[in-house]
Amino acid sequence: MPNVFVRYEALVAAGELKPDPEQAEAARRLDALATELEAVPKRGSVLWRALGRRPDAPAGIYLWGGVGRGKSMLMDLFFGSVHMRRKRRIHFLEFMLDVHARLRVEREKEIGDPILPVAAAIAEEVKVLCFDEIMVTNSPDAMILSRLFTELLREGVTVVMTSNRPPRDLYKDGLNREHFLPFIDLIETKMQVLALNGPVDYRRDRLGQVETWLVPNGPEATAQLSAAFFRLTDYPPEDREHVPSEELPVGGGRTLHVPKSLKGVAVFSFKRLCGEARGAADYLAVARRFHTIIIVGIPKLGPENRNEAARFVSLIDALYEHKVKLLAAADASPAGLYERGDGRFEFERTVSRLEEMGSEAYLELGHGGH
Q1: How far apart are CA 49 and CA 43, in angstroms?
Q2: Does residue 348 share a domain with residue 301?
Q3: pLDDT by residue (tens digit) across 66-104?
Q4: Into how many domains does the chain fold?
Q5: Domain that holds residue 308
Q6: CA distance linking residue 78 with residue 5, whole number of Å
Q7: Which InterPro entries does the entry link to (predicted)?
Q8: What is the dihedral of CA 311, 316, 321, 325, to 10 degrees?
């Protein structure tokens, strides 16, 4: 029998979690979903044949709430409690990259609607799909989602999703959003929508009293930031050599390579973010996608680094406006980072923002300023 709620209660009893009515209710619902899944007759079984059709499977659960409220933890409890071979837990962006690759293959065949065979193939591979951090940022994904998931649910796939946003706020103000609205309707009518917005921000707790700006760059700072990354993401120690990366769309058909990307936390080098020709659109894409950014290798800047300094100003503006948490290793304090050069006066605002971003009040804010 599934044991999502039992395992959740054990974590509370052990003091690893604090009592939270919304978390407890979500654990109960996930436990009920796991039980219902295991009651669905297996393909080819006597009950399957007696029905004379594919047995109805539950559509699933959409779990949303602020950063650090336990969404991923509950999904992991659910995933580990479902005793089914054909199950898959995947980051949403990785899933969509796979979908686009499959669609390209089907389009080359020039035989009918490519979404139908893609959905059928996915349904043949998995019966339970778990997505962490659904976040729709571009029109192609928005155009595909409602039709793809309509077919997946029709094929009997059960979906569990987490998101920082309620369904109605997905792809808000996005291009061609009218094509995306059927996907929102699908979530709201077919799936259970559960909110997790309890008082405890576990991700903030895991940061503890960590220094957010480490000086100087070097092995000690790198080790501290690495430890912070794994605390924030709950990544298993045995898998730390295989942290996922990501290609983040930044507009105009371009992408930004994210060397480490997990559960809304990203690691970048200063050189990648500010040493290359990048602009506000790139930094806004980063700020919207991630709630925490770790930057390593920030050098002391001078007159010869005016372009890098200007890009750094734009980057910090975007992170600050979206209330992104920043952990960094640098060769100087914020005040000593850029003491001479063009734009030095304007850089004072960046210094002020960096100092505020390390404050307790800023760290308590939710991503996006909510």
Answers
A1: 8
A2: yes
A3: 766 788 889 989 998 998 889 998 878 778 888 999 999
A4: 2
A5: 202-369
A6: 9
A7: ATPase_AFG1-like, P-loop_NTPase
A8: 140
Q: Are residues 207 and 184 in the same domain?
A: no
Cβ atoms of 327 and 210 within 8 Å: the answer is yes
Question: What burial class does residue 362 get, using C-beta atoms within 10 Å of its C-beta: 0-12 exposed, 13-18 middle, 19+ buried?
Answer: middle
Please answer whether residues 246 and 261 qualify as being in contact, where contact means their C-beta atoms are separated by less than 8 angstroms: yes
Last residue of a domain, one of 196, 222, 241: 196
**Any idea what DSSP says for residue 69?**
S
Answer for the pair 312, 350: CB distance below 8 angstroms, yes or no: yes
CATH classification of the domain holding 307: 3.40.50
What letter does residue 66 receive in the DSSP assignment?
S
Q: Report CA 76 to chain centroid distance, whole Å.
A: 14
Alpha carbons within 13 angstroms on the beta-carbon side of residue 83 total 6
> Over pLDDT 90: what percentage of the chain?
43
Q: What is d(CA 88, CA 140) in angstroms, rounded to the nearest whole number?
A: 23
**Claim to verify: residue 365 and residue 233 sit in the same structural domain:** yes
pTM to 2 decimal places? 0.61
Sign of CA dihedral 338, 341, 344, 346: negative
CB-based burial of residue 240 (10 Å sphere; 0-12 exposed, 13-18 middle, 19+ buried)? exposed
Please name the residue ranges forming H helices in the chain.
4-13, 21-39, 46-51, 71-81, 92-109, 115-125, 139-154, 181-190, 202-207, 219-233, 270-274, 280-289, 306-321, 344-357, 360-363
Q: Mind listing the pLDDT tens digit for each residue in 104-125?
A: 999 998 888 999 999 999 999 9
Give the contacts of 235 (CB within 8 A, at least 6 positions apart): 229, 243, 262
User: Which residue, among 335, 274, 272, 342, has the nearest Cα to 304 in the 3D structure?
Assistant: 342
